[in-house]
User: What shape does this take?
Amino acid sequence: MKKLFLFTLVGMAGLQLRAQNIDKIITRAYTDHLIKTLSADDMQGRATFTPGIDKAATFIESEFQQIGLKPLTGEKTFRQTFYKYQITPQSSSVKIDGQAIPTEKIFATGVNAEKVTLNQSNTAVIRFDPEKPFVEQLRAVMGSTKNQLILVDEKFTEYFNRYKGRFNRAGIVDAKDMEPGKQAVQVFVLGIPSATSFNAEFTAGIKKMPLFNVAGMIPGKLKAKELVVFSGHYDHLGVLKSVEGDSIANGADDDASGTTAMIALAKYYKAQKNNERTLIFVAFTAEEIGGFGAKYFSEKLNPDEVVAMFNIEMIGKDSKFGKNTAFITGYERSDFGQILQKNLAGTEFTFHPDPYPEQNLFYRSDNATLAALGVPAHTISTDKIDIDKLYHTVKDEYSSLDVENILSTIKAIAKSATTIVNGTDTPTRIPKLK
Assistant: This one.
């Protein structure tokens, strides 16, 4: 009985010590340091291909170095560098039945060459039905493998201008997408009811550009070949149209908050020294312009070796469920969430299924690529995405955040992931996308 009592005391002391450790490691001061630095004006909104994102990557590298992480296997540094081609629209010219169309009534997608010429011999003409939803018709033509001239009714002027602004920016593509005939071109023209003959010419600037995830790891012990990934994307939108003299989209919640969580978790697990599985910590690039960082990262892994992925995005404010709560996208697709909640028994924090299924968040974040390959890869968030007025605006700044919410969410993830990290729990796999 005395021995049993002694073991009980030792066990309780150990639990108390661990609880104290997490509060000493993941502190308010440390969290503030990370998120304030990442969302500062001198990061210039961390847009892909800008000095700001390079500066953010350097900061994350320095944090990984201080924590004591190692570069990924096969990498010499924490930067996981890859290349894409940046396509910048330069000029456009469209004539329909001899009439020159003003440039403000034109935009095109799929122009992945320095010069593209289209006419009725190599391009089909279609007309959007003004009685059907614009977005539904847009999705249909964007999936086409044929060149198309799309005539858009003036009823859709607002939608037309919105997507023109989106598609007339520089974009990035793979080398394979630049092969002749590989990419279909879709030309949208506003306010023209019909086209018997036409000629369209587009030019673009092409530049090979580097992108870089920032990734480090803590090697595992008995189950070192089994991988657990913690991630957040560190890119954002950069400089936008000025609002009240402010033009920097700081991206404090989206996703400096998630990147902060990922770094803090690396610090915590490094201090614990009890991970049987190998832990990978990665800040993804280019999430905002197509998820290119996560896609490249996923291609470098064997998905069958990835046991779980904790992708963390936008945890800067209370969730729909109140304080000390967060939701998990794709909750019903594996028992990942159930494992996390089991490990939080006795605490006040709870995880919930995604309350916004209509938003399709499960396949809108950096977890999607690995999830499609069968990995129980989920995103943890607290964002009220349906009413968040600061999302993708210059007002997403540190001052808008609830740092205590960020702290409680990070600590909840740290505690809830324990049995996955130490190898005693393995989430069920997600059915692969065909």
The chain has two domains: 23-84+211-421, 99-196. Residues 1-19 have pLDDT under 50 and may be disordered. The radius of gyration is 24 Å.
